[in-house]
Write a structure and sequence with these properties.
Blueprint lengths: L3 E9 L3 E6 L2 E6 L3 H5 L6 E10 L2 E7 L2 H10 L7 H10 L2 H9 L3 H4 L7 H11 L18 H6 L5 H10 L4 H11 L9 H14 L1
Antiparallel strand pairs: 1-2, 1-4, 2-3, 4-5
Helix pairs in contact: 2-3, 8-10, 9-10
Length: about 200
């Protein structure tokens, strides 16, 4: 089984990257492909979940071990397949999702792509006691009270902006991108989702 890949981003699409590893191109489906495009042509490490089924062999890739581990926990929940789990991670950071499960915050979970109330309840029931040690905040994660801020209608842009600055983007670039995207950002949108939209615009120039 493949655990991680390290190589150059050869192709970028909305749902996946093609990673060139010593001349072999691997199609890897990611929560946020544009994160890897922001590395200025440097080699990137993508942590992999190697998914095998009767009709396909698929690679799902993540920027951190934490995302990889949470993805594997999510697909253990009845009704959540790899595609839905990928959507969950594209709509919320690991710390946000784990915090919501620990706090039994159904209102947050049903805002994630592909998650209805019954699935949210099943996530809480199945995972609440299995996520110890997961969900620690990282540079690209929301601040600890992200969920409360989202419920009050605040935007995820300030946190997303800090993460983008850490990737090397200038204030001028970020101000320009925000003007282009601000009307398409929901008040309750997760930080990772806001970053994905911004990186797509930045990558397009």
């Amino acid at each position: 089984m493949i655990d991680f890949l390290r190589g150059q981003v050869a192709q970028l699409e909305n749902e996946y990257v093609v990673l060139d590893v010593h001349g072999v191109g691997y199609r890897v489906f990611c929560p946020n492909p544009y994160y890897f495009a922001a590395k200025n042509d440097e080699p990137v490490t993508v942590y992999i979940h190697h998914h095998v089924r009767e009709d396909a062999i698929l690679l799902f890739g993540f920027a951190t071990r934490e995302e990889q581990k949470l993805f594997r926990k999510l697909i253990e929940v009845s009704g959540i397949g790899p595609r839905v789990a990928l959507g969950i991670l594209s709509g919320g950071s690991p710390s946000g999702v784990v915090t919501a499960i620990h706090q039994e915050n159904i209102n947050f979970l049903i805002k994630l792509p592909g998650i209805g109330r019954k699935t949210a309840q099943r996530m809480i029931l199945d995972l609440k006691d299995k996520l110890d040690g997961m969900g620690e905040a990282t540079l690209f994660d929301p601040i600890p009270d992200e969920i409360e801020l989202m419920q009050e209608g605040n935007l995820g842009w300030p946190e997303a902006r800090e993460g983008l600055k850490a990737l090397g983007y200038t204030d001028a670039e970020l101000d320009r991108v925000w003007q282009l995207m601000k009307d398409n950002v929901r008040p309750d949108e997760a930080v990772d989702s806001v970053m994905k939209k911004a990186l797509k615009l930045l990558y397009a120039g």
